[in-house]
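Q: Could you predict the 3D structure of Nucleotide-binding universal stress protein, UspA family?
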Amino acid sequence: MFERILVPTDGSGPANAALEYAGEIAAVENLTVHIVHVVDPDTDPTDASEQLADSREWAGDADAPVIDEVHTGEPREAILEYAATHDVDAIVMGTRGRRGVGRLLLGSVTEAVVRDAPVPVLVVRGAPEVKREYPLETIVVPIDGSSHADAAFEEALALASDNGATVHLLSVVDVAPVGIDEGNDFRLEQLEQYAQQVVDEGVQQAEEVGVDAVGSVQHGSAQQRIREYTDDENADLVVMGTHGRSGLDRLLLGSVTERVLRTATTPVLTVREPDEE
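A: Sure. Here are the predicted structure tokens for Nucleotide-binding universal stress protein, UspA family:
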């Protein structure tokens, strides 16, 4: 499990939800929680200090070290620089799916940090329907055979081992993004066979390290199936790679991660491939 987690805050509801969840994790794992408030250079530092004091309250009685600082500058750059210079293991961020022109938009700062952070990013939506419970009992990992999804699976196995949780491996056969007609039985069968192979290998890998695992192959919209499966299994966490494979002979993950982040009813841990440039 992590030893040092960074929680950027701006005093908003989603940020407070992230702080509260980080406090719950810290209370169990005895982590060091770094709280950082990034402000514009023209902002009154007294106001920022007052917001940090409020943030400490949201973190709860974690009974673990809490380090809080105010930094000035551009939020994305300040957050990533702080994470790099303080050797944090993960970033916990709040976000709210905001309605744009006919679609949900993820907060731009959170999206940028998820895309560029070298450490896992735990995204917590500030919405009443979002389940935030710790320790973890059920972890859902969407997989597609890509190296990014494999990295997420490795992280999920470590979390499951620490928590005694069950890992659910979910592979969704979503033919629409790769341009395959559902009437093309041969190509559809190829995708189904590949998805089942990925799931079976993952279940075997989990069992070899002593983690309980369940596999499932489903059809339809990847984003929709991931959310429905997560809700049906009453999962505590979704772990996803930030990129995925696409093409006629591959399954799609990639941009699905961003869409899941906008509507997820549980926290989502995003993981990048370790040696990704």
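Q: Anything worth pointing out?
A: Confidence is low (pLDDT under 50) at residues 97-106, 244-253.
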